[in-house]
Amino acid sequence: MKSRDEIIYKLGVHFKERGDVLSLDCLRFLCTKQLDFIENLHGGKLSSFFQTEFGQESFKKHQIFSLTDKNGLIHDVPPKVVIYGAGITGFFCKSIIESLYKNSMVMAFVDSFKTGTYFEKPILNIEQYIQQFSDATLIIAVANPEKITPFVEKNNIKNYLCFKLEFPFWFSTFSPTASRLWELSGKPTYFSLKELPHSKDEIFVDCGVYDGETIKDFISWSGEYKKIFAFEPDPNCYQISKQNLKDINNLTLIEAAVSDSIGEAMFMSQGVASKLCDSEGVFSVNLTTLDSELAGETVTFIKMDIEGAELSALKGAETIIREQKPKLAICVYHKEEDIFEIPDFLWSVNPGYKFYLRQYTDTLVETVLFAIP
């Protein structure tokens, strides 16, 4: 198994040999935001920046973050805080509070998909938070906090705030090359790569349909196509997609999650952030593999945005990828290790792939790895 650094170096050389400057910048951005930056941030760059008078005043002046309630009103940091989201946004939230607000204390993290500790704080589930820290304000610190608030309110939690970072200024402070990436923001996420070829016989596979808008983007991009297969395990999203796509021809909509095995798994329904989980899911959903589900089909294009389950789903499509060499558009921002584990796996299955990295927002989401045969 190659190390992370070996794979990232190989990717960098791969991009540089083709003169793909945008992919190089995107790779630097990913490594900065998800890997080296996080490792060096705690007690490093962030603390040093905030320890100076200039740093603190600059931070406050630019209003890089805000805490808002459900009515959109801005609040100050409460004295006792529990952070929902044991990820990079939650880490930023913790670092900011501890660096700038000496009278406030972060007690713990809440996360539906992780256990143990995160930067020396315990990770709790939502029930444990209610039992142990009901007097602490819950701060929702995820990329899209508005997607989590229904889940929080469903658990009768009223004392919560939403944390938001203004990322363009934030990353221009620490990563000067990042500004070039935002030119793709607002464009169709999976179909604006100019190197992406298409034909009239496309068989498109959409893993993680959500509301069906990606399929409409695909049809606009392709013009003509042969078939569409769409997978969505969330029952609510499945019904919405079924209604939204009722007039689409040659579409098969499948109510299942794609993975590397067939069976059932627990599932947490949170709208756009719905995902498979180990033990705390609200209900179980069907699991399938693309190799088994699409046996006999000639797949030309696979898109995946499935909240961290991408690598497992790709392993469940290994035969298709090896034998049919479809175009791939795979999200690589859900897990820190995706940026090196996913291309390493794809190269092992199909060494002929050319990779492109593109960033479609100015936040921590919508980073897509394209693989073109």
What does this 3D model show about the protein?
It is a single chain. With about 375 residues, this protein is of the alpha/beta class. It folds into two domains: about 5-20 and about 185-370, Vaccinia Virus protein VP39 (Rossmann fold), CATH 3.40.50.150; about 65-165, Rossmann fold. The protein has helices spanning about 5-15, 20-35, 35-40, 45-50, 55-60, 90-100, 125-130, 150-155, 165-175, 215-220, 235-245, 290-295, 310-315, 320-325, 340-350, and strands at about 65-70, 80-85, 105-110, 115-120, 120-125, 135-140, 160-165, 205, 225-230, 250-255, 255-260, 265-270, 275, 285-290, 300-305, 325-330, 355-360, 365-370. The strands form three sheets. The protein has a seven-stranded mixed beta sheet with strand order 1-7-6-2-3-5-4. The chain has a seven-stranded mixed beta sheet with strand order 10-9-8-15-16-18-17, sandwiched between helices. Helix 4 runs parallel beside helix 6 (about 90-100). It is globular.
How are the SSEs ordered, and which strands pair?
Elements: H1 4-17, H2 21-34, H3 36-41, H4 45-51, H5 53-61, E1 65-68, E2 80-84, H6 88-100, E3 105-110, E4 117-118, E5 121-124, H7 126-132, E6 137-140, H8 149-154, E7 160-165, H9 167-174, E8 203-207, H10 213-222, E9 227-231, H11 235-244, E10 251-254, E11 257-258, E12 263-268, E13 275-277, E14 283-288, H12 290-293, E15 301-304, H13 310-315, H14 318-324, E16 327-331, H15 338-349, E17 354-359, E18 367-372
Parallel strand pairs: 2-3, 2-6, 3-5, 6-7, 8-9, 8-15, 9-10, 11-14, 15-16
Antiparallel strand pairs: 1-7, 4-5, 12-13, 12-14, 16-18, 17-18
Helix pairs in contact: 1-2, 1-15, 4-5, 4-6
